[in-house]
Amino acid sequence: MTETTIERRTLGTAAPLEVSALGLGCMGMSEFYGTADESTGIETIHRALDLGVTFLDTADMYGPFTNEQLVGKAISGRRDEVQLATKFGNERNPDGSWVGINGRPDYVRRACDASLERLGVDHIDLYYQHRVDTSVPIEETVGAMAELVATGKVRHLGLSEASVATIRRAHAVHPITALQSEYSLFTRDLEDEILPTLVELGIGLVPYSPLGRGMLTGAVSRDTLEADDSRAVGRFPRFQGDALEANLALVERITKLAERKECAPGQLALAWVLAQGPRHGLGVAPIPGTKRVRYLEENVGALDVALDDQDVAELEQAIPRDAVVGDRYADMSSVNR
After folding, report:
1. Which of 92, 102, 108, 120 has its CA 20 to 30 A from that of 133?
2. Which pTM value belongs to this model?
3. Are 225 and 201 in contact (CB under 8 A)?
4. Active site includes 107?
């Protein structure tokens, strides 16, 4: 696959940010999904930029801290090409231990300065609160984030896994450009209330795990996960025991539909997510994560998979909303707050 021009999407209307229609989640280049290799991650980011995938997503907690450093190295000399997103709020110690969720204004300021230093940049294009700290009024957290915009350290604000009530309160303090939440054929609960709210307020959607943490690609099974992969050790119930077998049976349905479309199952599942922007009338830019060039190139191929209304309906009939077995996380207490 050679250099190409990827279509663009606009996230948000009150504070719009133009990004590549498909982004790149960089988390797995440093942690959580088996063995990580910095040089391979940097190679993948360079290939993404060459292909026109310019919307890069990281967070201070990935590594922890090392993923921002990796992304910073990869974009050195190419900063002007990139729409750079990172996150704060899931606080960890340097040894990887977890501290908790932190939305205090003083922490917001310190976390931003630390991210800027690790990334080696003078501003962040999209700065998310990674998880909502219910012990701190959202108005105080977003107020501190708004100060970062005023000083030029941050250009646009985002939330992740926030509830409708939190989104509304946050948006009243400062325009929210994008909500990052899990969204895929396997996870569609935000269609009930959150998507209509985003449309109403003019907020874009950045779906993470649009391939169901890799399961929708058809390449994941009980035998393919490394021992240190977080999907293999109980963090994600959908990958455990009978739930995994039931969910892989659903993936087989996608595989059969993909054969008819002459594409990979992951490309078909990703094309469904990409189609939700026009369908719902809002900017949608999914960020499938990968640490390998060949999977990046496969994901980019999803942009060439055209779906009509009948295709969308068949996919949604193949995987009904209530068919997936298991919660998204073993601990769901920090999502949709």
Report:
1. 120
2. 0.95
3. no
4. no
